[in-house]
Amino acid sequence: MSVSWKTGDVPGGYLSTHIDGATAGRMIKEAKNPLLIVGGLARKIDLGGKRLIDYAIEITKKGIPTVATAGSSKEYPEDVDIKMMGAVEIVNRLQNPEYGVNGKPHDLVITMGIQYYLASQSLSTLKNFAPHLKTIALCARNHPNATWAFPYMPDYKWKEELEKLLEKL
Amino acid sequence: MVAKDEKVLNLKLKKFRTGSFKLDGFELAVGKVKEPSEIDEFAEPMGPTPKPGIEDLRDWDMKLLKRYPPMYSPICDMCCLCTLGKCDLTGNKKGACGIDMKTQQGRWSLITAFTGMNTHLSHAKELVEHIIETKGPDVPINFGENTPVESPIIRVVTGIVPKTVGDLVEVLDYIEGEVPHLVASIHMGQEGSYLDYESKAYHAGMLDSISMAVADIAQICAFDMPRADPKAPLAEIGAGTLDQTKPVILVIGHNVLPSISMIEYMRENDVEDKVELGGICCTAHDITRYTQRAKIVGPQSMELKFVRSGIADVVVVDEQCIRVDMHEVARSVKAPYISTTVKAMHGLPDRTDDDIDDIVKDLVSGKETGALILDMEKAGEVAVKVAIDVAPKRQKFKVIPSTEEVVAYAKTCWHCGACTKACENDLPISDAMYAAAEGDLSLLGELEDACVGCGKCEQECKRKIPVLSLITKASEKKFKEEKSMIRVGRGPISDYEVRNVCDTWAIGVIPGCIAMVGCSNYPGAERELYEMAEEFLMRNFIVAASGCAAMSIGLYKDEEGKSLYEKFPGAFVARGLCNVGSCVSNPHITDTTIRVANVFARRIMSGNFQEIGDYVLNCVGACGLVWGAYSQKAFSIGMSCHRLGIPVVLGPHSAKYRHQYLGTKEDLESFNIRDIKDGSVHNVGPIPEHLLYVAETKEEAILMCAKLCFRNNDMAEGRSLKITNYIDIHKKYYGRMPDDLPYYIRNENDIPYAAKDEIEEILKAAGWEPMPVVKSTTLLDPKDLWTYEALKQGKRWYSV
Questions:
Q1: What's the CA gap between A129 and B105, in Å, rounded?
Q2: Which keywords label this protein (chain A) (predicted)?
Q3: CATH homologous superfamily for the domain A35-168
Q4: What CA–CA distance (Å, rounded) separates B700 from B724?
Q5: B interface mutation test: which of A14, A92, A142, A147 has the most B CBs within 10 A?
Q6: Model confidence over B109-139: pLDDT tens digits?
Q7: Fewer Cβ atoms within 10 A, N terminus or C terminus of chain A?
Q8: Per the CB < 8 Å rule, is B664 touching A40?
């Protein structure tokens, strides 16, 4: 069981389980219809010469349906298929077990690059009102409301885990 | 003067001849002659819901909640409100009392809105009672000939037309009558329905709007603050505006009464030039509305930093957004502390009945560090006397460390990251400490603009480093020199001004009115408020502001050294920037939407909430932007907007309010409307798409505000302009065309000419079909539109 990044973000008895990059990669690959949600912060996080958004684009290019929120679409090449909507808009739709951005229901939702507290609250919505979904938070600031989440880690370690994730996709 | 329908004399002359004078078919009806005091100036028929109870507007609420169902984001999975628990509700499980997670979140909505509403109610009650006690009940309510409707929201909710401050008591009595029913529903979660809890939260929000209106009307009229004045003067803002060579009194909070007593005492004793008066939070707005000699230090986030700086010689708190530990902070800089309300007694000795000189002596000598004084006049006199006497002793004693001390503290840092973990904005404090330890304070200084001043970093620090004080020291230059201009709170927006813009606004040529209001819990740099306001102004929006947001907009200047208040007019016009005043001035902004309904569409105001809300939702392109909302009051102000049909965009921290009202545009049926003329059902697009939306970034907020100003009755020219704005903002911040245009283009006339080819391609790819043209839309059954029913019954009226 994980310890939340924010000292006060202690939601209750059901907290996320730590996960590493390789395991996350395998889970994403094995999911029937995963969905990647990329937040606006992804553009601003530099992981030693490679930004978080660059990792997100690589994951998308592996064929993972993607929603780009809050202007993260700006970094995506025009020919990469993404949906644009707000983080809260996609989370709201995901409460419906029939919903899918590609017309098919999702079974796994992956988040990265969303402001910590907005991501935490969004994952809370999914935890409480979307029991048909599992969630993975690929943020280096651990998220207790996800099903699985990276533990807190420094940026160099985060970069390593993301590289391992990509290797498994 | 004759009152209608009270005929007491009828004179008919079929033919009358005298000399050359002829009169045929003359008829004269004379009614009962009334004394001037008996004349009703407001002859509207009363609508269906004067002084509504919880159940009276429930149907309207449910219509809104069906279209915009609440999306909940629990911040706590537990319920610990009774001894049956605590109960784990994760996954929408039920607790021991039977409440499930959704209902628990609805319950929190009501608790939060209700707390905020009562805060303003208490404020209003205290103001009105004080004014009646000191000036009598007959203080006239008068905003000048351009503003004959004194308070649209009070008329719409209660049907009351207050002529004097004494008349406002009836409004307060109505609100107080609703309080127990709202509170009782919280007990054991007995309401049982999350939707009904939301409806009750709307009710609390609506009551909040009239509480605020009462408070601001009363203070404007009793203390002669600017009355619907678009040319209200400019006032100084910023920590650097205070003359630190003089004794300084700092007032914090929202209730202007103690401050007015200070000002009056200073005037009477000719010490105005000898003492500086500055304010933080909304009291600061209100003191500058009373005298331009007063200064605005800044928003609530300045409290801890400013008091620690030692500039204030006396700290006087009134109510609402005051730090709970302010007495302790004031004590640390040896500044005497005075509390003035029963709502925040802070464990202080009650000195209300004591001799003034004794209180002054005790505070100046340090025998007592603080005092509770509930007599406003006495509190004012004590504050001034203490400031004058204590200033030479204090010598601006501060707890901000020297540069050498900052470096020494930084060297003790373990870089454990606990401070950043506690910081809601994830400020990179550890990096700044590394630099500071080497003597470079620049990184620490850069943190200031995004620091909300909460001090949680210090609570977590195992090394007891006063992180916030280090940041304050590192930004000392800005702190001392920060000086800008803000337009003084103008109060109401006149009927005259609304009349001048209502046609262009209601049909969409003015793309919307953005209300930038609320607190200072910003997710990033405070400067973002300035940037957002500037973007809306340059895009021809009307921007209205209040509270801490209005201050943050004013704190920044362009390259020429001018603030937005100096560059844009204070009138309610396209490219106008109106600061209405403090938090209780907020209804003046929402009142503009009611004035449009009344002036432009001739809708009855009195007791006619549902029809007015329906009109605003369908026709008036307005959107709130509360970028730093954190308080319960900000929440309830938001609720007052929702019931009135005004969408609100919040900053990302506000996800912690636990709920949003989100539409789903693919579910077109949920956006069905009726044609007012025949009641036929149509779909003209998902507009406005959401009622309460949390945006992740500044850019998303700008885009969403622009989109949420779309309205069903936009004329083609207006919709085309709004879509042009939407596309332009989208391209600027999202790098490509929006993919949802087919939802908002009703027919070819809506397509902006400049992007015609590109849009037509998108429409073709989406299989777009034109939507029906419906000139006047409603969510209601047209028979529930009271204005039309009254017209059918042959009633005619005038509202002013």
A1: 12
A2: Oxidoreductase
A3: TPP-binding domain (3.40.50.1220)
A4: 17
A5: A92
A6: 999 999 999 999 999 999 999 999 999 999 9
A7: N
A8: no
